[in-house]
Amino acid sequence: MKAVVLQPDHRFALEEVKEPKLAHPGDVIVQVTTTTICGSDVHAKHGLLPGVVPGTIIGHEFVGVIAETGTGVERFKPGDRVAVPPATWCGTCRACRRQEVQHCPHGGVWGGGEIFGKGLAGAQASYVRVPNADVILTAIPAGVADEQAVFVGDVFSTGYHAAFEGRIETGDTVVIFGCGPIGLGALVAALQFGPRQVLAVDMLDNRLALAGHYGAMAIHAGRDRVVEQVQAVTDGQGADVVIEAAGSPDAFAQALKAVRRGGRVSVVGLFPNEVALPIHELVYYGVQISMGLGNLSRVDRLMSLLETGKVDLTPLATHTFALEEALEAYDLFENHKDRCVKVLLRP
Ligand SMILES: [Zn+2]
Ligand SMILES: [Zn+2]
Predict the structure, then answer these.
(1) Is residue 181 within 8 Å of 341, Cβ to Cβ?
(2) What's the CA gap between 344 and 332, in Å, rounded?
(3) pLDDT: which is higher, 238 or 274
(4) Is the Cβ–Cβ distance between 108 and 116 less than 8 Å?
(5) Is 208 exposed, middle or buried (0-12, 13-18, 19+ CB in 10 A)?
(6) How far is the CA of 192 from the centre of ligand 2 (A)?
(7) Which ligand is the nearest neighbour of the Cα of 153?
(8) pLDDT digits (tens, 9 = 90+) for 7-25
(9) Could you tell me the distance, in angstroms and rounded to a whole number, from the CA of residue 234 to the centre of ligand 1?
(10) What integer is the mean pLDDT of 227-242?
(11) Which of 45, 92, 237, 347 has the highest CB neighbour number within 10 Å of its CB?
C-alpha cells in the first residue's frame, strides 16, 4: 500500500509500504476512508517532534471501515464504520480510570514515532492496525458523514477541551486566539455553553470569515487593536474566558491582557518556544490558566452531538485530495494556499 513517510531531509514522500497485520487479539485492521493533515504533521516534517524519525508513516486523524478483527474483539465486526481517536489508551491504568485517557502512560499517537507513538504507524495510508479496539474506537452513526466524523477525534475533541477547561458559563464573553482548525473547533464547542458573544482573532481573512459563519465577531490581529476591541465590548472589564489556539507567544501575551480579573485562559496551542509569564500580575488579578490537549474519553459524546445535526464541522474541510496527491495537499495546507483550512485525504 502507499503511505506518507518522513524522509531524512525534512521532506515527506509517498512510499510503498507493507500492509499492517493483526498482532494481538484486541486489534482490528481499519481500512482508512478519510484522513486529514494536522498542523502537528507539519511539525513532524520539520523535526519538531522528537522520536518521529525518517521512515515513520505520518498521520493521526482518520476514520474508516473495519477490514479485519482480532479474536478478542467484541464490539466491532468487519464493515463497521469507526472513528479512531488520535491516540490509544489502555482503559485500566489510574489515568484511564480517572477518565483522563489522554494521560495514559501506555498510549501512543499514530505516527508519533517511538516517544509519543510507541511505534504505532500513522494513518496517511490505506490500512492501519488499531490495538485495544473495543476500548478506544467510536462507531460512526449512519447519518454522520466522514467529512464530519474525521474531525471528532482531534479537532473537535481538542477544541471542546479548550472550551470545557475554560469553564465557559452562560452569558460569558469568550475570545479565541487562532482560527485554524482547532480554534474553529473551540468556537463551535464554546457555543454549546451559551456565551453572550465570541470574538475570534486571526491574521487570515478566510479563517475569520469562517469564524463569522459560526457567529463569532471577527478581529484581524494585524489590522485591528485586539485588546482594545475586547475592552470595548466588555465595558472595559476584559473577557471572561480566553482560548489560546494559535500557539503564538504574541497571541498568548495578548490573551493575558484580554482576560478580565478573575477570568480564565485556556491554552491548547502548541508553542515552538518557551514563553514568559507575568506571574506577579496573574497572581494579583487571580487569572486562572489551564492547558492541555483533548480528553479523548469525550469522543463518544461529541459524536452523538454530531449525530443530532446541531453541530456542522463540514465547512472546515475546504479541500479533498486522493492520498496519491498528498504532497500537493501538504503544500496547500502548510502554505495556507487557496483559502485552505483543512485538507481531507482519501486513500
Ligand atoms: Zn491532529
Ligand atoms: Zn491507561
Answers:
(1) yes
(2) 12
(3) 238
(4) yes
(5) buried
(6) 29
(7) 1
(8) 998 899 999 999 999 999 9
(9) 33
(10) 98
(11) 347
More confident residue, 257 or 114: 257
Grid coordinates 486529514 are at which residue?
A: 36
Q: How far is the CA of 302 from the centre of ligand 1 (A)?
A: 16
Q: How far is the CA of 154 from the centre of ligand 1 (A)?
A: 5
Long-range contacts of 112-117 (CB under 8 A, 24+ apart): 112/49, 112/51, 112/52, 112/60, 112/87, 113/44, 113/49, 113/50, 113/51, 113/52, 113/53, 113/56, 114/51, 114/53, 115/50, 115/51, 116/49, 116/51, 116/52, 117/51, 117/52, 117/56
Coil, strand or helix: which one is 308? Answer: helix
Task: For residue range 112-171, list pLDDT tens digits in order.
Answer: 998 888 999 999 999 999 999 999 999 999 999 999 999 999 999 999 999 999 999 999
Q: Is the pTM of this model over 0.90?
A: yes
**93: closest CA among 85, 103, 84?**
103
**Domains of the chain listed by start with CATH number:** 2-154+295-346 (3.90.180.10), 156-291 (3.40.50.720)
Task: Tell how far the Cα of 59 is from the centroid of ligand 1, in angstroms.
Answer: 8
